[in-house]
Structure formats: structure tokens, C-alpha cells
């Protein structure tokens, strides 16, 4: 998709992602997706997946529950839609995966878990609920409203689910790491590595710091405090990477996940890449295109028509309109 800045290329890419996944890749504040002056928004998307046609409809009304439909049938939510359709996006906001704090990388990994291991999608939210319940029990004990025995069942839940979450995160990172390093190198980022130290959490770990947890009324050990490391050579890219290196690392992560999903599902995901050519020379643009999963569909926005694209594959975007070049 080509067109000058400000004509709506990114908005169109965002709408496609909402239609395919039920949420925006740019914001979690869904009322912001409703146009100024309007009371609701709707995205309808049609296409083919696994050889069969599909149609989705997402209705957003501020203050009301989001409505998600697939082929006319109401779904429980976006999570169910994402288990049926696969779409990945690269936008400038995704640089937070490298530049942001550990909470951003944990959330990124846990969303990926649901796409790569659908049957394990509930491990992360179940663990978060167990930690929240243990923290509530700690507050009650600290306030003299309950005894220590009220903490024990939740400690057992945190230990079991936390170890399971650490294990599946480690498995995911192991599956991604070789593809991430290879794709990053092809895009000019040498010696890139993605690692995660999933140690698990035991009842002994929780008991050892129970006094400190009671003082603070929070659980101070477990995968809710872990971090994934994204490095190039000996450098942590969060603090010692240039903007271009951080951008390349995020793009390599997206493409590595696309490759992994294509392998596990037998079909590449839809890729939505916003403004990825702007900081690449011709050689690296060609390298990027060579890394796209074969047989899949990729939509790329750019201010100018790239010389590597066939004319019939170019869509020109103007305010309020998108048409074939």
C-alpha cells in the first residue's frame, strides 16, 4: 500500500488486524478506534483460510462489550477469533517489545503462546489470577483478617502454574531463537539472540520469602517478574541498541513467529508490515522480502512504490479510498 504520509495507510492496516484478530496492534484503548463524532465502529473482513472462505465482523461501542463474529456466528471474544485466524503486525509501536520494560516482553511472549500453543493459551491468565488471589490473601493476613493457612492454597497454585508457565515460555523461546537469529542476520543484525531463563517456582521458593511478601502484600518471586533477553553480541538491545537495531530485532521476531506458525499450522499467517522499508537500503529491502513465508499474504505500507513490487500488487491509498495502482 502506497501513499503520502497522513492519508490513512496505517489506519487501513490497523483495521485489517482488528478484523482478523479482534484487537488493535497499536492501542488497547478500544474507544480510540471509533471515529471522532461517531458512536460506534465496525470492521468487516473477508478472505480465505485453510482453503475455506471466511468473514469476520467486529462491532465496537464505547462502554459496551465488544461483539466478535466469524461467518455470522458470535464468538466469546477476540481470543477465540485468534485461535481460528492468524495475523501478525509490525508497527512502530511494537518497538516497545525491545525498548520497553520487562512487562512488555512478558505480555508479548504470552500473547504469542496463545497463537503457537492454542491448547496452552490459558496458562498465563490462570497464573495471573492465582498471583492476584495470593496477593489478596497476603493483604488479609497482614491486616489481621485471616491466618497464614489462607495463603497456602494459593501458594500451591502459584507454584504449579508458575512452573508450567516458565516451561512453556522457555519452549516457545527455544522454538523461535534459531529463526530469530538467522532472520536478524539476513537483515543486517549480526549475533542476535533471544533467551528466557525459566527457572520455575516452588513452594520452597515462596515459603522462603513469605515474611517479605507479607510485609509488601505482593508475591515477590515467579514468572510474573521474569524478563526475556534480546541481545546482539554482548549488548542488551534495550539499553545499548540503536533505533535501527531495535527495529530490526522486532521485525525479526515477527518474521520468526510467522515462520513458526506456518510450520505448525501448515499455512502462513497474514503479515501486516507498517513502514518497514523506510530505514532499509535496496539490498536489505530485498533481504526482507526473501524472509517472508512462501505462499502467504503480506501487506506492506510505504510512502513510495518500492521497485521490488509488481505493479498489480500495489494499492494506492488516498484519503477515504484505496484502489489498485
Model description:
This protein has 325 residues and is of the alpha+beta class. The chain has 2 domains: 1-86 and 303-325, Rossmann fold, CATH 3.40.50; 94-263, Up-down Bundle (Glutathione S-transferase Yfyf (Class Pi), Chain A, domain 2). Helix content is 44%, strand content 18%. The chain has helices at 9-21, 78-84, 96-99, 102-116, 123-142, 152-186, 203-208, 210-216, 237-240, 243-265, 282-290, and strands at 41-49, 52-60, 67-70, 73-74, 87-90, 192-196, 228-232, 235-236, 270-274, 298-301, 315-318, 321-324. The strands form 4 sheets. Strands 1-2-3-4 form a 4-stranded antiparallel sheet. It has a 3-stranded parallel sheet with strand order 5-9-10, with helices on both faces. A 3-stranded antiparallel sheet has the order 6-7-8. Strand 7 (228-232) and strand 8 form a beta hairpin.
For the structure shown, list the relevant keywords.
325 residues; alpha+beta; Rossmann fold; Glutathione S-transferase Yfyf (Class Pi), Chain A, domain 2; 2 domains; three-stranded parallel β-sheet
Amino acid at each position: 500500500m502506497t501513499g503520502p504520509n497522513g492519508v490513512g495507510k496505517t489506519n487501513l492496516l490497523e483495521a485489517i488486524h482488528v478484523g482478523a484478530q479482534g484487537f488493535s496492534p497499536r492501542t488497547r484503548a478500544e474507544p480510540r478506534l471509533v471515529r471522532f463524532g461517531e458512536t460506534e465502529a465496525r470492521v468487516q473482513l473477508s478472505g480465505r483460510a485453510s482453503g475455506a472462505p471466511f468473514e469476520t465482523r467486529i462491532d465496537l461501542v464505547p462502554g459496551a462489550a465488544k461483539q466478535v463474529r466469524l461467518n455470522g456466528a458470535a464468538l466469546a471474544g477476540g481470543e477465540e477469533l485468534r485461535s481460528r485466524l492468524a495475523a501478525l503486525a509490525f508497527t512502530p509501536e511494537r518497538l516497545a517489545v525491545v525498548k520497553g520494560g520487562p512487562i512488555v516482553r512478558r505480555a508479548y511472549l504470552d500473547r504469542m503462546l496463545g497463537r503457537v500453543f492454542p491448547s496452552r493459551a490459558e496458562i498465563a491468565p490462570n497464573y495471573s489470577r492465582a498471583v492476584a488471589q495470593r496477593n489478596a490473601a497476603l493483604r488479609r493476613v497482614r491486616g489481621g483478617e485471616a491466618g497464614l493457612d489462607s495463603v497456602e492454597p494459593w501458594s500451591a497454585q502459584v507454584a504449579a502454574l508458575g512452573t508450567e508457565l516458565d516451561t512453556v515460555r522457555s519452549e516457545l523461546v527455544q522454538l523461535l531463537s534459531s529463526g530469530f537469529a538467522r532472520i536478524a542476520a539476513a537483515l543486517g543484525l549480526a549475533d542476535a539472540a533471544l533467551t528466557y531463563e525459566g527457572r520455575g517456582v516452588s513452594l520452597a521458593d515462596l515459603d522462603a520469602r513469605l515474611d517479605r511478601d507479607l510485609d509488601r502484600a505482593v508475591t515477590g518471586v515467579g514468572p510474573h517478574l521474569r524478563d526475556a533477553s534480546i541481545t546482539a553480541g554482548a549488548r542488551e538491545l534495550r539499553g545499548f541498541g540503536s533505533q535501527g537495531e531495535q527495529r530490526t530485532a522486532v521485525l525479526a521476531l515477527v518474521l520468526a513467529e510467522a515462520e513458526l506458525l506456518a510450520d505448525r499450522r501448515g499455512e502462513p499467517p497474514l503479515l501486516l508490515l507498517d513502514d518497514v522499508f523506510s530505514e532499509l537500503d535496496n539490498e536489505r529491502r530485498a533481504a526482507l522480502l526473501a524472509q517472508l513465508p512462501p505462499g502467504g499474504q503480506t501487506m506492506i505500507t510505504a510512502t513510495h512504490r518500492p521497485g521490488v513490487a509488481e505493479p498489480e500488487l500495489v494499492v494506492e491509498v488516498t484519503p477515504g479510498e484505496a484502489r489498485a495502482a
